[in-house]
């Protein structure tokens, strides 16, 4: 799979696709009440990743299905396959985000914020690329 930027999809996204993303994000944010009970560390998990993940995977599945069906083909299997690839990518990216969070957690109290954030960003990028390369080769 070749990674590329395709700006033509901006014209294909409909207003209700953005509404779905907003709705998922709002619902997950409402679950942020968990943060009040268990603290910001646990609450942050519910506010960031699930909101983006749910909206993205459902829209990936829908768009791939519509593409196939516009050609007169059955698109459900293609949509599920594309969504599963998106989920796998999200899982791999989460490993990098975990490393980012760990670096910030360990070094922010004792070092300059800009140095820690730069190091955490570099760590995230490095780990994410390495995980992608490992997955690509296996």
Q: What does this protein structure show overall?
A:
By secondary structure, the protein is mainly α. Helix content is 82%, strand content 0%. Helix 5 (49-70) runs antiparallel to helix 6. The longest helix is centred in the middle third of the chain and has 32 residues, at 76-107. The two termini are 13 Å apart. The relative contact order is 0.07.
Largest sheet: none
Number of strands: 0
Would you identify the regions where 5 or more consecutive residues have pLDDT less than 50?
A: none
- Structural class by secondary-structure content: mainly alpha
Helix content, binned percent = over 70%
Tally the helices.
7
Q: Quote the beta fraction.
A: under 5%
Short description:
With 138 residues, this protein is mainly alpha-helical. It has seven helices and no strands.
């Amino acid at each position: 799979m070749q990674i590329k930027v395709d700006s033509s999809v901006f014209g294909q996204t409909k207003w209700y696709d953005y509404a779905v993303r907003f709705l998922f994000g709002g619902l997950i944010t409402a679950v942020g009440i968990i943060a009040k009970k268990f603290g910001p560390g646990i609450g942050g998990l519910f506010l960031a990743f699930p909101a983006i993940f749910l909206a993205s995977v459902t829209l990936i599945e829908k768009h791939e299905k519509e593409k196939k069906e516009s050609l007169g083909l059955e698109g459900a299997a293609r949509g599920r396959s594309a969504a599963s690839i998106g989920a796998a990518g999200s899982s791999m990216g989460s490993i990098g985000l975990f490393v980012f969070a760990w670096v910030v957690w360990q070094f922010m109290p004792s070092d300059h914020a800009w140095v820690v954030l730069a190091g955490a960003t570099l760590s995230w990028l490095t780990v994410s690329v390495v995980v992608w390369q490992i997955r690509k080769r296996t």
